[in-house]
Amino acid sequence: MSRFWNQFLAALTPGVRILLAVLAATALAAFIGQATGDFNLDGWLALTAQHFWRGQIWRLVTYVLLPAGILNFILNVFALILLGGWLERVRSRGELWIICSVSAAGAGLAAVLLPFAPLSGAGPMMFGLLAAWYFHCGHEKVSVFPFGEMTVRQLALVAAAASLLFTSISAGWQTATVMAAGGLSGWLYVWGWHKWLMSRDSRVVPSERISRLEL
Predict the structure, then answer these.
(1) pLDDT-derived band at 92, boundaries 50, 70, 90
(2) Per residue in 172-200, pLDDT tens?
(3) Where along the chain do its domains lie?
(4) What does the chain look like in DSSP terms, one character per residue?
(5) For residue range 114-151, what is the model confidence (pLDDT) as tens digits?
(6) Strand pairing of 141-144 and 148-151?
(7) Superfamily holding 2-214
(8) For the segment 46-56, what is each residue's pLDDT rounded down to a tens digit?
């Protein structure tokens, strides 16, 4: 068992390991607080419009640290290992953390503008990572049982649509809208960053040697 655990941890990227450790520690503390009744992390970290408009802006991001249930926690951890590990390998640890933060903040802003109950759960971050996967690897092909070969773009759209449909049925359209806002925020960040890099690469750089040849 210890050998399997060591191999599992070794396969994780450093940024994902840190995120998993933070999420696991916060989830454990939240469950202990609820079971004992000694404290309630939701009162400190969960996002509500009332707290946000009173100046507690940190809640735009800290709500993702709280699990919205055991199943929600397990699904988000699974998505973080797959999508977060991929993003850190092909891009960077910094971009992984930025996309997670931007997606969380974008979904948080949508939540405070809607009639919404206290928001918690890392779902918006996972939608942001899914959007980044869609953007960077959209034309790559993967084999998915039992559907056969699909492009990453098709798979990401199917996964997002199924998740939003399930969320809408189980938690309401407001929650689905907030999750979609997280994905849209992540996609806009990746798209904007890509456009900025392309504009830098295409900028004409004056050359002293060419200037002498023209003379």
Answers:
(1) confident
(2) 888 899 999 999 999 999 999 888 888 87
(3) 2-214
(4) -HHHHHHHHHHS-HHHHHHHHHHHHHHHHHHHHHHH-S--THHHHSB-HHHHHTT-TTHHHHGGGS-SSHHHHHHHHHHIIIIIHHHHHHS-HHHHHHHHHHHHHHHHHHHHHS--PPB--SHHHHHHHHHHHHHHHTT-EEEETTTEEEEHHHHHHHHHHHHHHHHHHHH-HHHHHHHHHHHHHHHHHHHHHHHHHHHHHTS----HHHHHHH-
(5) 877 788 999 999 999 999 999 988 888 888 777 788 89
(6) antiparallel
(7) Rhomboid-like (1.20.1540.10)
(8) 999 989 999 99
Q: Is the dihedral of CA 55, 183, 160, 90 positive or negative?
A: negative
Which residue matches tokens 């009173």?
Answer: 54
Token match 């039992």: residue? 146
Two tokens at 117?
Answer: 């109950």
Report the first-to-last Cα separation within the chain, whole angstroms: 74
Whether the CA torsion 123, 124, 128, 131 is positive or negative: it is: positive
Amino acid in position 171: A
Distance (Å) of CA 57 to CA 13, 53, 117, 177, 195: 30, 8, 17, 20, 29
What is the number of other CB atoms lying within 10 angstroms of the CB of residue 6? 10
